[in-house]
Write a structure and sequence with these properties.
- By secondary structure, the protein is of the alpha/beta class.
- The protein has a domain at 62-209: 3-Layer(aba) Sandwich (Rossmann fold).
- The chain has six helices and nine strands.
- The chain has a seven-stranded mixed sheet, sandwiched between helices.
- A hairpin with a 6-residue loop joins β8 and β9 (202-209).
- The longest helix is centred in the C-terminal third of the chain and has 13 residues, at 174-186.
Length: 214
């Protein structure tokens, strides 16, 4: 399932952000290259945070929040958070170190408020450690649910991070989207907000998780 990629050039802008990708560069065929490009949902979230004054999605990111971007790729969404709020701290996570390098370059203008960490979906121990050390108030993920084979590992990772979650997904296949929501519900996530009318079949969702042991 290929993602829709609106920005194939190596450099592009969204509002005040100047960003780069490594889409189109030579790569190892065995490598997961999904994070090398800027995907539709991440770009749409950046536009909502930076360009849409009346967007209710803005209210989901509290001032001064500690935000973890999961599967960050080149870091579009996390950079938008940092650009909008000078008090925010953002941790970019991905399994691909080349993507983390690109995210770090894109976020370099924000100084020590932004950092990176390798995090593979399904590595619950690593996610729990990050939850303890970084203490995220919010986890954001954009276009992370398009592959059904990754849903289980993705949701286990989200649960281990023990934070509110904002997911922004481009709905390509209704069944796949529904399976993803079902997996989240089974893991104890409750839908706390949803905005469907942001364009290009992109849906924004806010989830809370029941952390009670009972």
């Amino acid at each position: 399932m290929a993602a829709t990629v609106p920005h194939r050039s190596s450099r592009f802008t969204i509002g005040p952000l100047e960003l780069e990708t490594t889409a189109g560069e030579l790569q190892d065929d065995s490598e997961d290259t999904s994070g090398r490009a800027a995907w539709t949902a991440g770009c749409k979230l950046a536009e909502l945070l930076l360009l849409e004054d009346k967007s209710s999605v803005r209210e989901w990111v509290a001032p001064g929040a500690r935000v973890l971007e999961l599967g960050c790729g080149c870091g579009v969404a996390g950079c938008a958070v940092a650009a909008r709020d000078p008090a925010a701290h953002v941790l970019f996570t991905d399994s691909n170190t080349a993507c983390l390098d690109t995210a770090a370059r894109n976020a370099s203008r924000f100084g020590t408020r932004c950092s990176t960490s390798v995090l593979r979906w399904g590595d619950v121990d690593a996610a729990s450690k990050i939850a303890t050390t970084f203490r995220p108030m919010l986890v954001i993920g954009t276009d992370v649910g398009y592959d059904p084979s990754s849903h289980g590992a993705l949701v286990r990772t989200l649960a281990a991070l023990r934070a509110e979650v904002v997911l922004v997904e481009q709905v390509r296949y209704r069944d796949v989207f529904g399976w993803f929501l079902d997996e989240l519900e089974r893991a104890g996530f409750a839908l706390a907000g949803r905005v469907d009318d942001v364009g290009e079949r992109v849906c924004c969702m806010r989830f809370c998780i029941n952390t009670n042991d009972s």
